[in-house]
Amino acid sequence: MRELCDILEEVNRRIAAACGRAGRSPSEVDIVAVTKTHGAEVVDEARAAGLRIVGENKVQEAAWKKPASASGPEWHLIGHLQGNKVRHALELFDCIHSVDTAKLADRINFIADEMGASPRILLEVNVSGEKSKSGMRPEDVESVARHIVEECPRVTLEGLMTMAPFSENPEDARPYFRRLREIRDSVQDRLNIALPRLSMGMSGDYEVAVEEGATWVRLGTVLFGERPKIKSVRAVADDVGGFTGGGLDSYSGEGPTVRVLD
């Protein structure tokens, strides 16, 4: 098996080449290391290899994995956020990529005010229009961004996030990434605000995403291989009741497995 440092060197080389094709600096692009279903030891390995950002899809998975991992990296929530898990998300994550309604932004702002927190967020945009994907409609981005700027003083809106439809051909993702960049540019101009972050691109299409302006690429499989299978399921925390449920076993054999069937 290849060492993560060797894999990361190749990924960084590809990112640099994509930046060169787009006339960008590689310093503009950071990797979000997606450790979904991997154990805390993978977070430690990522940190040791120099990765500075960890991405998790589930609040409840980060709740056990973060305390079990080495300190240092930022933790980003990249999966759907339910309103009843906002408090726990703000306790665990430095940035939330997946805010998809003004109502959710309001709840984040309200709870952040109670906690004295200043969360950083991105708006998730369903550029493709696929019903299976979360995210707001492209035509709603400006109004939601305006609402956050005017009505959510605890929240810092940093940019936009999207997922392209799955395809074996990375080029198929290009129109969706380009569209997100265009939406961002329009909102910046019309609201006179800075939105420096574009979270887009995953293991199969990150080079195209970088060519189209990505500043955060969310990489899991290309770095860590195929995800381990889930061995057990347990129900976990909301803003009211704390953690409940049973099963201990992790995806990698260490610590609790935590998956909620939404």
- Beta percentage is 5-15%
SSE arrangement, N to C? HEHEHEHEHEHEHEHEH
Helix content: 25-40%
Q: Name the assembly state.
A: single chain
CATH class: Alpha Beta
- The number of distinct β-strands equals 8
CATH topology: TIM Barrel
What would you say the CATH architecture is?
A: Alpha-Beta Barrel
| Biggest beta-sheet profile | 8 strands, parallel
Q: Distance N terminus to C terminus? A: 35 Å
User: Which whole number gives the mean pLDDT?
Assistant: 90
How many DSSP helices? 9
> What's the number of domains?
1
Strand order of the largest sheet: 7-6-5-4-3-2-1-8
CA radius of gyration: 18 Å
CATH homologous superfamily, by name? Alanine racemase
Q: What characteristic shape results from the CA principal axes? A: globular
Can you describe this structure?
The protein is of the alpha/beta class and 262 residues long. It has a single domain, classed as Alpha-Beta Barrel (TIM Barrel), CATH 3.20.20. Helix content is 36%, strand content 14%. The protein has 9 helices and 8 strands. The protein has helices at residues 4-22, 40-48, 59-65, 86-92, 102-115, 141-151, 174-191, 206-211, 221-224; strands spanning 30-34, 53-56, 74-77, 95-99, 120-124, 156-161, 197-199, 216-219. It has an 8-stranded parallel sheet with strand order 7-6-5-4-3-2-1-8. Helix 7 links the parallel strand 6 (156-161) and strand 7. Helix 6 packs across helix 7 (174-191). The longest helix is centred in the first third of the chain and has 19 residues, at 4-22. It is globular. The protein starts with a helix and ends in a 38-residue tail after the last helix. Residues 232-238 and 240-262 have low confidence and may be disordered.
